[in-house]
Specification:
single chain, alpha+beta, Nucleotidyltransferase, domain 5, 3 domains, five-stranded antiparallel sheet, 14 helices, 23 strands, 27% helix, globular
Length: 627
Amino acid sequence: MWGEDGGFLGGNGAAMAALPQDPDKMRIHVARRADDWKLFDEAVKREVDSLWANGTWELVDLPPGKKVTGAQMLCERKRGADGEVARYKGRYVVRGDTQTAMVDYHEVWAPVARHATLRALLGKCAGEGLTLCQLDVETAFLNGVMEEEVYVRQPTGYERGDPNKVCKLIKALYGLKQASRAWYKKLVEALEAGGLQATGADPCLFSGKIGGDICYVLVYVDDLLLTSASPESVARAKDHVMTTFKSREMGEPSYFLGMHIERDLEAGVLRLGKRKYVLDVLARFNMTDANVRYQELVGCLLYLATCTRPDISFAVARLARFVSAPTSAHWGAGKAVLRYLQGTKDLAIKYGGSSELVGYHDADYAADVDTLRSTTGAVFILNGGAVAWTSKLQKSVAMSTTEAEYVAASMAAKEAVWLQRLLGELGNPQTAVKMHCESQGAVAMMRNPVSSPRTKHIDVAHHFVREMVDAGKLTVVNVKTGEMTADVLTKALPMDGHHKCRGEMGLVPMTGNDSASSRVGVLAGVPTRDGAGGDKDEAPRGTGPQDGGASAVQDDGASAVQDGGVTAARDASGVAAGAGGRAAAGGAPQAGTEETNGANVAPGKDVKFGAQPRAADGVKAVRGAAD
C-alpha cells in the first residue's frame, strides 16, 4: 500500500523489513521531486529498455470486451548492508488488486524456501567447509510466461510506437498475482535442464550432480544460494543459471535476505544474524503508543524471532495475543523487548564443527491464565546452532504435566521427521534424532503403549511420536530441568538461565564487542499495585540501569523482563484483563506479509516452525520490485 505522498507503506514480500513509510521507496511522481531524480530517471529508462528487450509485451489494439489492468512505475534506492545507497531501481508494477479472479488469473501459489532449510544448509556449509556463492536474478518475474490474456498501458512518459495501442503481456510483470508462480515454473525448467531436481523436503531446495560433485541450490524468489564441496561444481551451476537468466554474481554471501552472514573459513565457523534489521526496528519504534504501532511492532518482532532470534520467541508469542486490543501495559512490554534487542543487536546463530541433529522440547503446564492451555517450546540444534524452533500454545487443555509434555513431544516429532528427511537429502542422513524431554512420565508414554484412565482421553494425533519412536526414527532421553535448552521457549527465566539456554542454541555476538551480554532495559510502565503505570518510560521500583535491568515481576501478572527485556509478557493476558483490554480471539495484524524479507507468520499466532515467507501473492512484487 502507499501513503498519500506516494511513499511505500508496506505490502507483500519484504514489507516487514521496510520502515512504515520508507523514504527510499516511492512512485515516480514523488521521485521526480527528489534531488537525485536524474539517477532515478536513468534507472527507469533501464527498466523500460529491459521490458522491450525481453519481449515482455506486444503493442495491439484492445480487443472488445477486454479491460486494461492498471500499472505504475515505482522507484527505489537500494541500500547495502552498511546502509549506503548501492544502486537505483525502477520497476514497472501491475496493480494486481485490479485483476479479476478466474479471468485475469487462475492459480497463483508458488513456494519459497523455509528459513529452517536455509539455516540447515548454512550449518552444513560451516561444518563441512563447502563453497558458497550468491546470485541475484535481475528482473526475475519478467522471465515467466503468461498463460492468461492481460493488457496494460505503456509507462507514462516512456512510450514507444503508437500511444493509442495497449500492451498485451507475453511475459509476466511484477505485481501480477500469477507472476511468482510463472517465474517459479520457469526457474524449475531451467534448473532441471542443468541437472538439478527439487528435493522432497523443500521444493525450493534443488540438488544434483554437476561435474561429479553434488551441488545444492536454494531459491528464494530471485535470490539463489549455490553450494558444493567442489568450487568447480559451483562455478558450472552458476554459469548455467547466468547463461539462462540475466543475473548478478554476488560472490561469497555476506548479506542474504536481510540477514548478515559472517564466515571464518579457517575456523570453520559461520554466523547468521540480523543486526541491520534490529537497528531499523529500533529506529522505527522509538515513540508513540497507538494500537496500529503495536501491531507493526509485533509483526516486526515475529519476523525477527522467525529468522535468527529464538531467544525472543516466547516474549513475542505472548505479545502477539493482544494485537486487536493492546493496552499501554502491552506497549510497555513490547518496548522492553526493544530495549533487550538494543543491547543484543549483534547476536547471531553460530554454526561450526560437525554434530548430529538433536532436539529439545518442553511444556509449561497451564501457563495461559485465560485458557489454561499449556505452552510448547522446542528447538533443534545442528552443528552447534539452532536450525528450527517454536514457541506456541497447545490446542487443547492438558489434564496433567505429563500430558502437556507428551503433546509437546508430538509437536516436536513432526518437525524432527521433516528435518531428518531434509538432512538426508543434503547428504547427512540421520539414523535417529535424539529428543530430550524432562518428564519421566512422558518419556515412558513415548516408549510404551500405555493405556490408563489418565491417558485414554489423549487425542490419537498425539500418539504420532510414539509411532516414530517405535519405528526407530526418534530416540527419547530424559534430562534434568536445568539442562533443558527449550526452557527459554516456554517461560520467563532468570538471567543466568536465559543466558545458558541462549548459548546452547548457538547465539553469540557477530563482532568482537560483547554487547550481547549487556543487561539493558526493563519492563516500562507496567501497572503496579496502586494502579500506576501506562506508557511512561519509568522502570518499576527496584529495577533500572543501575541494576542492569534485572526483571521485576508485577503482582498483577505483568511479565517479568529477564536480563533486560528478554521475555516480556509471561502473563500478559493478566495485564490485558486487568486493564480491560484483552484481545479478541483471532484479532491480529498481518504480521509478516515476508520477505519476508518479512515473514508470513500467521496473524495473532505464536512463533512456530513453519512461519515463513510465501510467494503466493507475488513476493517482492510490490515491495519495490526485485533486489
